[in-house]
Amino acid sequence: MIARSFALAAILPAAALALGGAASAPEMRMKAAVAQEVPRNEALLEKLVRQNSGSLNIAGVKAVGEMMRAELEPLGFDVEWIDMTETGRAGHIVATHKGNGRGKRVLLIGHLDTVFEPDSPFTGWSREGNRATGPGVGDDKGGLVVIVATLRAMQAAGTLKSADLKVVLTGDEEKTGAPMDVARRDLIAAGKWADVALEYENLATDGTQDYATTARRSSTNWEIVTTGRTGHSSGIFNASMGYGAVFELARILDAFREKLPEPNLTFNASVVVGGTPASLDEAGVKGTAEGKTNVIPARAVARGDLRSLTPEQDARIKAAMEAIVAQHLPGTDAKMRFFEGYPSMPPTAGNRALMDQLNVVNRDLGLPEMQEMDPAKRGAADSSFVAADAVTLGGMGVAGGGAHAEGEWVDLASIPRQALRSAALITRLTAEPRQKR
What we know:
This protein has about 425 residues and is α+β, with helices and mostly antiparallel strands. Helix content is about 35%, strand content about 20%. The radius of gyration is 24 Å and the shape is elongated. It starts with a helix and ends in a 6-residue tail after the last helix.
């Protein structure tokens, strides 16, 4: 996998230089198509947003999947619904377009679900000028619309017919089903099929500057359970009673804070309970605890997350955390466990070369050039599951803000901009001869 990444890295810059210059005639037709279809794309976005598709809303996620099927099948895609009942989620869309078999294979990634379940007070759709507001309008329904607009622009330009493409739209990106190996089996397989993967989460922006996402950090949850001898508080710290579960947990968390920080790493203790007894629910989001001020706490529990940039950093920090946990205060014990999570998408030469190729597209089409986004400012995404097998670029969706919160919004003017970028980039990529593996 490493060798393949560097091989592609060597190919992409040469291709980018060869394709430099003015936009081609097909690309000009793409530009006209995305401009003409602005009302259609905005109507599709409103339709998608008005359908609730919280990750646990099985019927809602399926309904959005059917809306996307209706968009993809007329474009010549073989659309398959992958049922995910065994993971407790609705399922995924895997759509395949067979081209001429000669060009690079490109995977487009998005997701059908949102963080807003049916009982959320944040509902509906509103618009003021080019600002549209609604649940999941950017994350990731705006991304779904950019995918559709991209493919329709390619069809209008005559470049879709020869392109070998897959579109994978997961139904549980915001709250992934379990086991993870089943929940992401089909996405990982698509990544192994592809040469290049483009992920349509929100475009990163700062004022008028657009950013390319060449890397994302991992996201792994952890739990620490500490125990201690319980009894009258007057005996705490002595040889027979020890320090109690809460002081042991405090020692561990403070040692994390003091010893572990480094670039591109964060770790957060999100919920903590302690007492006699104390526990968290199975999901790790709600806790119960009892205790009196004159009783040494017998148990404490903390849950949090860990985000790192590379597999090597992740393994090293996990080992360091476990070593800290193992250094018990007198009269206490502690255990730590990590849960399945999202892997990292490290910055690679291949990813950066792909960004350079996108910037050639930007220059040729008169679009703003993009800078590399700091991965510490981006969350995890499904692109990380394919980054080990395909050259990957993220954040190809719409511009906006307030994701995962009431008031989430998008800049509707970013839809045609992003669709044109994608259509031209994918057309150029799929015209490049595919290298044998």
